[in-house]
Amino acid sequence: MISIKDLIYQYNSETRISFPDWQLDTRGQALILGKSGCGKTTLLHLLGGLLQPSSGSVFIDDQDLTKLTGSELDHFRGQHIGFVFQKPHLIKALNVQENLFLAQHLAGIPKDKERVLEVLKTLDLLEKRKSKVYELSEGQAQRASIARAVLNKPALILADEPTSSLDDENCARVIEILLDQAKSQGAALVIATHDQRLKNQVQSSLNL
Ligand SMILES: Nc1ncnc2c1ncn2[C@@H]1O[C@H](COP(=O)(O)OP(=O)(O)OP(=O)(O)O)[C@@H](O)[C@H]1O
């Protein structure tokens, strides 16, 4: 179960965002919707522990993220949370499979080549495993970032505008993969977006 309560994030004296209390079941799927600037990305970063709230709580299963120190949070994030961003934040100097080995390393998980190849196969990227990130098409790069997000079997997958820059065909493919992967891994999936194409594809939504 994911839950937020009395959650507030203050960037500065002008920008203070207060979020509605909200819960999502383990294995639940939700879109975070709302107009530009309402705080969708901020909420995703709070759920993923990339930002610490000014007040309130963020629970991922039984863990209150606000109670973790910086290094505990890094460790928790690496093991329990997978991120997919609008642009695939992969390391350009590394090839696709090296990016995935790095994700295992950063999460403190022993190198597991079998798992890396399994995930790349699921995402139809096996042949591209030795390609540098800049050699991939936009859709392939987005699939590589999904591969990295699901690699460590996270309890929660967070995706920030994962489809906005993709054409209809790649958009349909990416959302299908995200939903499939979340389902098969038993993970909850939260997608922040203003992409109208996703509206009827996800179980529930939170309007900010
Ligand atoms: N680093 C920052 N410093 C100060 N204010 C910020 C910072 N990042 C975001 N904000 C402000 O916080 C508010 C919420 O931003 P956020 O990016 O979460 O919105 P969003 O709903 O994701 O927007 P969009 O749909 O345009 O991506 C906005 O008013 C934004 O200007």
UniProtKB/TrEMBL annotation:
<dbReference type="InterPro" id="IPR003593">
    <property type="entry name" value="AAA+_ATPase"/>
</dbReference>
<protein>
    <submittedName>
        <fullName>ATP-binding cassette domain-containing protein</fullName>
    </submittedName>
</protein>
<dbReference type="InterPro" id="IPR027417">
    <property type="entry name" value="P-loop_NTPase"/>
</dbReference>
<feature type="domain" description="ABC transporter">
    <location>
        <begin position="2"/>
        <end position="206"/>
    </location>
</feature>
<dbReference type="InterPro" id="IPR003439">
    <property type="entry name" value="ABC_transporter-like_ATP-bd"/>
</dbReference>
<dbReference type="GO" id="GO:0005524">
    <property type="term" value="F:ATP binding"/>
</dbReference>
<keyword id="KW-0067">ATP-binding</keyword>
<dbReference type="Pfam" id="PF00005">
    <property type="entry name" value="ABC_tran"/>
</dbReference>
<keyword id="KW-0547">Nucleotide-binding</keyword>
<dbReference type="InterPro" id="IPR015854">
    <property type="entry name" value="ABC_transpr_LolD-like"/>
</dbReference>
